[in-house]
Amino acid sequence: MSPKTITPELVGLDLGYDDKSAVIRALAARVVEQGRATDADALFEDAWAREQKDETGLPGGIAIPHAKSSAVSVPSLAFARLTPGVDFGATDGPADLVFLIAAPEGAAEAHLAVLSKLARRLMLDEFTAGLRAARTPEQVVALVDEAIGEGEPATAAAPAVAAPAAASPAPSATATDAGLLIDGRPARIVAVTSCATGIAHTFMAADALTAAGTKSGVDLVVEPQGSSGYQALPQSVIDAADAVIFANDVDVREEARFAGKPVVRSGVKRGIEQPTQLIAEAVAVASDPNGARVSAAGATASAATAENLSWGKNIQRILLTGVSYMIPFVAGGGLLIAISFLPFLGGYGIALAHGTSGVNNAVYTLQHFAIWNLPPEGLGYYLGAIAFEIGSVSLGFLVPALAGYIAFAIADRPGIAPGFVAGAIAVFMNAGFLGGLIGGLLAGFAAWLIGRPAVPRWLRGLMPVVIIPLGASIIASGLMLLILGAPIAWLMTQLTNFLNGLTGAGAIALGIILGLMMCFDLGGPVNKVAYAFAVAGLAAQTPASFQIMAAVMIAGMVPPLGMALASTVLYRRGFTQVERENGAAAWLLGASFISEGAIPFAAADPLRVIPANLVGGAVAGGLAMAFGVESRAPHGGVFVFFAIDPIWGFLLALAAGTVVTALIVVALKRFAAPSRDAAIAAEDAVDERVEAAVV
């Protein structure tokens, strides 16, 4: 029999804490004390990271901090009743009822469904009143057990469904309000709710909207898209609806089902806090011929993105989406090419032209030999030719993939085909990386515009698979061929010639700039721009492109390695216990070229950590260019040493940048804010008490 989700030992009544971080930390410690999680700090950090994204306070004095964490072994609920309440960000004041929902990272759907039941029950006044009146932890456990059906087989949460839209109920007393009537009948509305974790807010918003719909007399059906799965609404219900409400913090799954419907978008918390207003807005947009409509292409931006981001931020999101989808093509292809250069395989000569044949040695080998008819150089050389050719073909998708997924970020799946075509045209025109970027934007916006107008139902099925891809391909690729391709190709040629001609101070300056970009935001937009610039250049297979790749990789390794050196070796007492543990992990992350390993340090102390990272990254990037270090692999850090030349230059530049970063951050922590040591010592003392309690 599986353990109960909540026990009396996980309940604390009438407790007092200064702030919400203390509440979450105390509840995480309770979970660990009961053997349901392995690391209180890790559980706290995961729940706190979720809290930082979107505060979990809700109207009515409720807060539900929650997380899926690798530290959790048993799905658990920990409860605290607070006196006085603590601010968790709710609009109506502090929370006195706090549940920490702790789910394993790979929690089964049944467990997630049990946890979501609690979130839904918290919307009922009689349940929260019972929690406030409970005199013992056992009474709280009994209330929660009844709410989540503990002891009964847990099933995936079904959508909160009101009466079917095809058979509208008789208008209630409040349905006589003309604002909620359409053509003399109650409005028909469908809604979709989802949050980042899919555990709590998803279902609370669903219930709040359902209850508000019933009270307002509208015919409302909700599809909660939670981590425990979701049951798609029947298409007949969607087709009969007058409007759609999307209350989401993540992308709506299969949004194209709602194509052409008037739509209101918001974050999921508004679905909990202002369901009646959302319903009124949905009825209003249904009556407005110029109101927002769901695109036939579907939208990839979350509701929060669509509602809150500026044009500049949306363009940034679109470009980063394209880069993130492009990188696997480059990483896999680049590593295969690097492997083919190993001495016992093809060696560097595998990439050279073969006589006057017009092809390189790899292609010539594959054209004239086979596994049963090996070349004179032997099996290793033949396998090297295979690795080189697969890698080259994979790299050939760099520009089309970039363009295709930029278009996808704008227009969803109907944008992929015209984006790939525009990217292929950019390659044909020798417009390179920049041509793919522009072609992808053209294809995406063309597909988005074509999909915006409402079309008859019989035509909707053809829109995403025929009409949108065809029209967008003609527009985007036509513009590339007729107008834009040649100027972009000329610009790329000039840029390539400039980079190939860089020597001495110019090359070092470029290395410094790339180093600063890699260390500025640790995996953010600036970092991604520098990395994308480097990997796009690998397709040229020139010494300049290899040197740029090396400078970028070395500089990107410096922040986590510098923080690891400072926090675990040079100045341990200047870092918290959690930071020291992160420092131990950062050794491997840095060695693997994962810049994000330094993010916990930068988030905790940005004014000291970021400047140290910048200086160290600039030193590393500049030295890499000065030593002429080349990397034929786009990723891997020290583990692709075979693709780096000279290796001594790589290691020396990396060591210099790491030491500079560590020394600067230590100096800043010691002399810029020496009083912080006392705070860290106090925090360590608290951690020791927690550990002692756990033991």
Automatic annotation (TrEMBL):
Keyword Transferase included in the entry's annotation: yes
InterPro entries: Bacterial_PTS_Sugar_Transport (IPR050864), PTrfase/Anion_transptr (IPR016152), PTS_EIIA_type-2_dom (IPR002178), PTS_EIIB-like_sf (IPR036095), PTS_EIIB_2 (IPR013011), PTS_EIIB_2/3 (IPR003501), PTS_EIIC_2 (IPR013014), PTS_IIA_fruc (IPR004715)
Domain PTS EIIB type-2, chain residue ranges per copy: 189-284
Protein keywords: Cell membrane, Kinase, Membrane, Phosphoprotein, Phosphotransferase system, Sugar transport, Transferase, Transmembrane, Transmembrane helix, Transport
Lineage: Bacteria, Bacillati, Actinomycetota, Actinomycetes, Micrococcales
Bilayer disposition of the protein: Multi-pass membrane protein
Protein name in the entry: Fructose-specific PTS transporter subunit EIIC
Domain PTS EIIC type-2: 315-678
Organism per entry: Leifsonia sp. NPDC080035
Residue ranges of domain PTS EIIA type-2 in the record: 4-147
GO terms assigned for molecular function: carbohydrate:proton symporter activity; kinase activity; protein-N(PI)-phosphohistidine-fructose phosphotransferase system transporter activity; protein-phosphocysteine-sugar phosphotransferase activity
Cellular component, GO, one term: plasma membrane
GO BP of this protein: phosphoenolpyruvate-dependent sugar phosphotransferase system
One Pfam family here: PTS_IIB
Superkingdom of this protein's organism: Bacteria
Gene3D superfamilies from the UniProt entry: 3.40.50.2300, Mannitol-specific EII, Chain A
Principal subcellular localisation of the protein: membrane
Localization terms from the record: Cell inner membrane
CDD domains reported in the protein's UniProt record: PTS_IIA_fru, PTS_IIB_fructose
Transmembrane segment boundaries: 318-342, 381-408, 420-450, 462-486, 498-518, 548-571, 609-627, 639-668
